[in-house]
Design goal:
Blueprint: H1 3-14, H2 20-30, E1 40-44, H3 50-58, E2 61-66, H4 69-78, E3 84-88, E4 102-108, H5 117-127, E5 128-139, H6 141-145, E6 151-152, E7 161-162, H7 170-179, E8 182-188, E9 200-207
Parallel strand pairs: 1-2, 1-4, 2-3, 4-5
Antiparallel strand pairs: 5-9, 6-7, 8-9
Helix pairs in contact: 1-4, 5-7
The structure holds S-adenosylmethionine (SAM).
């Protein structure tokens, strides 16, 4: 099963499953100090819109993209706002927004499903303006090393299914970003209560040069 098919099958259950990583990510995004007011946001891999709803409540305009129609359908139902545009598509391909048109790009719990980070990060760099910010929050690589990854039990089945994933080290995130003209501005490794190993890797990045400076 590919990533897209897995999320199509997971979509109906995704919001209600016990999922401490989803819940911590949701909480961390709201505390991440993102520059939302008056901003134009691109959310890559928006899923069921759990975070799109929050982003839309604070920013001027949000474009939210995902390739799973099942996840998007739920997002569209959750967020009915004229300031949000949902797009169906693969985030490893060209994003449907102009160069330098965004103040903020948000990518959360998506990059473990992407083999080539550079392709996605290059799109983030392209659409960000010179003062823009890329916020990334992903399952921490340490957790991947102890065997954690996105998984779900389909309706009517007893068997857990694994969603295909790739492992990326912290240095791979940072060097892939540097390779496309982004620099690291901040990093955190939050845990949920009782976690021995960090659950999330949060990265704040910005363009490494301002073309008009
Ligand atoms: C774990 S969910 C996270 C959803 C949301 N960002 C959140 O934090 O709640 C991962 C999402 O990434 C999407 N995704 C994974 N690979 C993708 C790709 N190449 N193009 C578009 N969406 C992708 C999946 O369809 C799924 O909706």
């Amino acid at each position: 099963m590919g990533v897209k098919e897995a999320y199509d099958r997971w979509a109906r259950l995704y919001d209600d499953n016990d999922n401490r990583t989803r819940d911590l990510n949701r909480q961390c995004l709201r505390q991440a100090g993102l520059p939302l007011t008056g901003g134009r946001v691109f959310e890559a891999g928006c899923g069921t819109g759990l975070n799109t709803e929050y982003l839309a409540g604070h920013a001027d305009h949000v474009v939210a993209m995902d390739f799973s129609e099942g996840m998007l359908e739920r997002a569209r139902r959750r967020v009915e706002s004229s300031s949000v545009r949902f797009e169906s598509g693969d985030i490893t391909q060209a994003w449907p927004v102009e160069d330098a048109s965004c103040d903020l790009v948000v990518i959360t719990l998506v990059l473990e499903h992407i083999d080539n980070l550079g392709r996605v990060l290059a799109q983030a760099r392209r659409v960000l303006n010179g003062n823009g910010l890329l916020y990334v929050a992903e399952l921490h690589p340490y957790r991947q090393l102890i065997g954690k990854q996105a998984r779900f039990t389909p309706e009517g089945s007893e068997r857990e299914e694994l969603v295909p994933t790739w492992r990326h080290s912290i240095s791979e995130y940072v060097s892939s970003a540097m390779g496309v003209g982004l620099v690291l501005r901040g990093m955190a490794e939050p845990r949920a209560e009782g976690d021995e190993v960090p659950r999330l890797l949060q990265l704040w990045m910005s363009p490494s040069f301002k073309p008009d400076a």
